[in-house]
Design a protein that fits this description.
Length: about 140
C-alpha cells in the first residue's frame, strides 16, 4: 500500500519534467509489482510447489535490494522537492510522496530483518526448539 501511494502521488504530478522523478517512479512501480507477485505467490501457497527454491533467501535478497533502492529513491525524491514550485499541488504531492517513500524504505528494512531471521532459522517456534538428540 505504501509503495502504491508513492508512485500514485508522483504520477499525479508533472514528473516527466524532472528526470529525478523518473528514477523514483521506476523504483516504486518495479518493487510494487514484485511485492504484489510475492504476495500472490504466498497467498496461493505456490512456494510449496516450487520447493527447490530457497524462498527465505530469495525474500531476504529481494527485501534488501528493495531497501537499498528505496533509500536512493527517497533521497532523490526528497532532494527534488522544490518549495518554490509554480504549482502548489505538485509540491504537496511530491513532499507527501517523499514521506511515504521513507515509510516504504523503513518497512522494507524491517522486512529484511525478519527475512534474515527466517533464513537463519532464528524464528523457530516452541515445538521445534524442544527437539533434541537425547533419544
Amino acid at each position: 500500500v505504501l509503495g502504491l501511494l508513492v508512485w500514485a502521488l508522483i504520477a499525479d504530478t508533472t514528473y516527466y519534467l524532472h528526470a529525478a522523478y523518473g528514477w523514483v517512479m521506476f523504483v516504486s512501480v518495479f518493487f510494487w509489482i514484485l511485492t504484489v507477485l510475492f504476495f500472490v505467490t504466498y497467498l496461493l501457497q505456490l512456494q510449496l510447489k516450487f520447493y527447490m527454491i530457497p524462498w527465505p533467501l530469495v525474500l531476504m535478497i529481494f527485501n534488501a535490494a528493495a531497501t537499498v533502492l528505496y533509500v536512493t529513491a527517497f533521497v532523490t525524491c526528497a532532494a527534488a522537492v522544490q518549495p518554490t514550485s509554480w504549482r502548489q499541488w505538485d509540491y504537496n504531492r511530491r513532499a507527501t510522496a517523499s514521506f511515504f517513500a521513507c515509510l516504504t524504505m523503513i518497512t522494507y528494512g524491517v522486512s529484511t530483518f525478519f527475512s534474515f531471521r527466517a533464513w537463519k532459522g532464528l524464528g523457530s517456534n516452541a515445538a521445534t526448539s524442544q527437539v533434541t538428540d537425547h533419544a
